[in-house]
Amino acid sequence: MFKPTNALFGGLLWKTPWRLSSPQKARQRKRLRAVDRVVDTLSAALTRNGQSAKAVERWYAEMPREEEMLPKDKYTLFDKKEKSYRKSIHKLPKWTRVSQRVNPPGF
Amino acid sequence: MSYFRVTLLRSAIGLPRRSTDVLKALGLKKRMGTVFHAVSPSVAGQIMRVKELVSVEEVDRRLTKQEVRLQRKPDPGYYIEKSAVQERSEMNAQA
């Protein structure tokens, strides 16, 4: 049964919602915490052996933890083409498998 | 001497080539695959490259493949009864 819709008529029509749902946000927080946990484990194991790794130290110096982040930074990211300079984080390609935590200061 | 127990939870399909190569270097081929590596800065750096894809634990020793499999096995819900004589001889053998 053919059902005329914009997606079928117009060719390229991306039906990605412009905002995240609350379960999506909850899962995003869960993923952020999982990454924090991995880095904490690495750091704890290295310090116990009296060693250190540059990548781990740099992460602690530059990246905020999940609980320190503002909701704005957890769910949106900077985009110069947007009116508000922010777009929802699910517009970022592979957003569930990349770390995107900091944005330009002031935006 | 402690080890990292690294399990691949998310695949690197569609991610940059470097992520796939790092997983290969760590010996992770499939999702839910587990590898053990001695704690060292170089291994930590490798894990940092794929930190969004893996879960890491610090353990005392490398488990064998069979031991990892046994940990995932559910409780069978029954146990096999033995005669007192048999149980006693087993206890003596252990002691």
UniProtKB/TrEMBL annotation, chain A:
Q: GO molecular function of the protein, one example?
A: structural constituent of ribosome
Q: Which UniProt keywords apply?
A: Mitochondrion, Ribonucleoprotein, Ribosomal protein
Q: Which GO terms describe its biological process?
A: mitochondrial translation
| PANTHER family the UniProt entry points to | 54S RIBOSOMAL PROTEIN L31, MITOCHONDRIAL, LARGE RIBOSOMAL SUBUNIT PROTEIN ML60
The record's listing under InterPro entries reads:
Ribosomal_mL60
Q: What is this protein called?
A: Large ribosomal subunit protein mL60
> Which Pfam families does this entry report, sorted A to Z?
L31
A GO term from the CC aspect:
mitochondrial large ribosomal subunit
TrEMBL record, chain B:
Question: Which controlled-vocabulary keywords does the entry list?
Answer: Mitochondrion, Ribonucleoprotein, Ribosomal protein
According to its UniProt record, where is this protein located? Mitochondrion
Q: What Pfam families does UniProt report for this protein, alphabetically?
A: Ribosomal_L30 (PF00327)
Q: Which GO terms describe its biological process?
A: translation
Alphabetical list of InterPro entries matching this protein: Ribo_uL30_ferredoxin-like_sf (IPR036919), Ribosomal_uL30_bac-type (IPR005996), Ribosomal_uL30_ferredoxin-like (IPR016082)
Main localization (coarse): mitochondrion
**Domain (Large ribosomal subunit protein uL30-like ferredoxin-like fold): residue spans on this chain:** 4-54
* Gene Ontology molecular-function annotations: structural constituent of ribosome
Q: What does this protein do?
A: Component of the mitochondrial ribosome (mitoribosome), a dedicated translation machinery responsible for the synthesis of mitochondrial genome-encoded proteins, including at least some of the essential transmembrane subunits of the mitochondrial respiratory chain. The mitoribosomes are attached to the mitochondrial inner membrane and translation products are cotranslationally integrated into the membrane.
Q: What protein family is recorded?
A: Belongs to the universal ribosomal protein uL30 family.
Annotated protein name in UniProt? Large ribosomal subunit protein uL30m
Could you tell me which species this protein originates from? Answer: Penicillium steckii
